[in-house]
Specification:
The two termini are about 30 Å apart. The protein has a seven-stranded antiparallel β-sheet with strand order 1-2-3-11-8-7-4. Helix content is about 5%, strand content about 50%. It is mainly β and about 160 residues long.
Length: about 160
């Protein structure tokens, strides 16, 4: 039996660099890719290649500044009502954020409440939350997810509650 590892992730930029082998390249040549991630509490933003924007625009409902009510909420606290958000009126001029939500399906008649993807253009944007330090996000396309933790004793995975 291997010893159990306990890890705590801080609420700031996490950059993972690891070798990935491209099957089309020669066996001698290895490519290293950088996966950029931002974490604020239980919200995780993972960079997605910008070439995916067109595919996402076709398959998701897009909301822009004009559609939002002064903020773009990524997640809301279950107990406190605090929320992870981009505040539109605090963005620098020229910075634009689009959010991509799930389209309605047969079993789900409304658009997803929280976006699955965020596209930041024209400069950096700051993510705010009442219990965390503001987090500055570089321009790009990001997939939003909620951090999960694995309980080795019960062998279960659960969402982290913020």
């Amino acid at each position: 039996m291997q010893p159990r590892k306990i890890c705590a992730k801080p609420s700031w930029l996490v950059v993972n660099a690891g070798p990935e082998i491209n099957p089309r390249s020669s066996p001698k040549k290895k490519e290293t890719t950088m996966s950029i991630k931002y974490q604020q509490g239980d919200v995780l933003l993972v960079a997605v290649p910008n070439k995916e924007v067109l595919n996402i625009k076709e398959n998701y409902h897009t909301k822009t500044h004009e559609d939002q009510e002064g903020k773009i909420v990524l997640a809301e606290g279950e107990a406190t009502g605090h929320h992870h958000r981009f505040e539109i009126d605090r963005l620098d001029s020229g910075v634009f954020i689009s959010s991509f939500h799930s389209r309605p399906e047969y079993y789900r008649r409304s658009i997803g409440r929280f976006p699955e993807y965020i596209h930041i253009e024209g400069g950096e944007a700051t993510l705010y939350h009442e219990e965390h330090n503001p987090l500055t996000i570089k321009p790009g396309l990001y997939r939003r997810s909620i951090v999960r933790e694995f309980d080795h004793i019960s062998n279960l995975t659960r969402k982290v509650v913020d």
